[in-house]
């Protein structure tokens, strides 16, 4: 964050920031390999990956667009280092990106790729779309979306409302509060922070949740219930979908959408 502050103040350029962050990534990667839970990217790994995707010598040559429009995309890929992101699903065929910081936007035949260094980003998109999000610092808000959502976040709260489909999330720090009207599969791994999952009680899913240090509270009418300290497993109606939550240090709450 100190390096990003120097970048924002203009004391170093993007290329210098990239070299400094890559050096930290190489050093910390050797120290912390295997520190996070199985399947979770380490902070240094994620930083190294994002430096390669976000920073480049060409980045500073791209204008800071205030608004970008496109259509015909099936997926949005977002990689951000500092700033909040809001993504809203609407009845529209167009994707509109609004930002107030540095961002590079790339189009492929079926995807929109956004790489942001700082500042907030707001995206209005067709409700049916797939998302891949990686963020180092900042809150993430998702509204009225249908599709596959894959997310990695190091710091910041995650809030989702009126979601449908698949969700896979890996989080280091921050609270997670998600509302799913329709579920295909949900998998959440978190290290620090509370997790609240709001579910339509008419959904069909096998549910398994666990925490090392935290309480588990379930308002859903589960069958074949197995409940132990820091562990709960059961079936909501039938085992059509799978909900898995592993929260190392924080509470887990499963609530019914009324």
What does this structure look like?
With 258 residues, the chain is mainly β. The protein is 15% helix and 53% strand. It has helices at residues 2-8, 14-32, 43-54; strands at 67-71, 75-80, 85-90, 94-99, 103-107, 111-116, 121-126, 130-135, 140-143, 146-155, 158-173, 176-192, 195-199, 205-213, 216-218, 223-228, 231-236, 241-249, 252-256. The chain has a 19-stranded mixed beta sheet that branches. Residues 28-44 and 53-63 have low confidence and may be disordered.
Kindly list the characteristics that best describe this protein.
258 residues, 19-stranded mixed beta sheet, 15% helix
Mean pLDDT: 84
Q: Which band does the percent of strand residues land in?
A: over 45%
Number of strands: 19
Integer-rounded radius of gyration: 19 Å
Q: Considering DSSP H and I runs of 4 or more, what fraction of the residues is helical?
A: 10-25%
User: Low-confidence stretches at least 5 residues in length (pLDDT < 50)?
Assistant: 28-44, 53-63
Q: How would you sum up the major sheet?
A: 19 strands, mixed
Which overall shape is indicated by the principal axes computed on the Cα atoms?
globular
Order of helices and strands: HHHEEEEEEEEEEEEEEEEEEE
SS class: mainly beta
Q: Please tally the helical runs, counting DSSP H or I stretches of 4 or more residues.
A: 3
State the distance separating the first and last CA atoms. Answer: 41 Å
